[in-house]
Amino acid sequence: MKIIHADETDYSYILERDRHIHPSLVETKIKENEILMIWEQESRIGWMRYGYFWDNIPFMNMIWIDEPYRSGGIGRAVVQHWEHLMKQKGFDTVMTSTQSDEHAQHFYRKLGYVDAGSLLLETQPLEIILIKKI
Question: Residues in domain N-acetyltransferase (predicted)?
């Protein structure tokens, strides 16, 4: 497995699969090195996309691993890789969120993330905000 920053050749792959980002922002995220691609041999198997909460705290917006590759430690490796990159950039805290009805909250807690609050939107389940000192 390798984890590298997305480039323009990843644009279509991301656009076809990531339904949680406005299409006009994908190119910007690629240019800003805010998408990591996950490869197994010669195939893309997922991505991780992030931004900055308050333009100051790295915030993991989305991690996706194709179904056949899940539960094998790849998600953990990607999150740890990202945390290491953020630490190298001088950050000491990272954030993410997940809906309360998603299993991901347990995954993040196992990685040392702690609940820091929540957001309730009218048409969505409770969004749990998680934070971690790195």
Answer: 1-134
Question: Which segments of 6-42 are extended strands (E)?
Answer: 35-40
**Other C-beta atoms within 10 Å of 14: how many?**
22
- Quick check: 46 and 66 in contact, CB under 8 A? yes
Strand order in the sheet with 127-133: 2-5, 35-40, 43-53, 57-65, 93-99, 127-133, 114-119
Question: What CATH number is given for 2-133 in this structure?
Answer: 3.40.630.30
With cut-offs at 50, 70 and 90, classify the pLDDT of residue 103.
confident
Task: Report the alpha-carbon angle 81-86-87, nearest 5.
Answer: 95
- Return the amino acid letter for 117: G
Give tens-digit pLDDT for 44-85: 999 999 999 999 999 999 999 999 999 899 999 999 999 999
Domains of the chain: which residue ranges? 2-133
Contact 39, 1 (CB under 8 A): yes
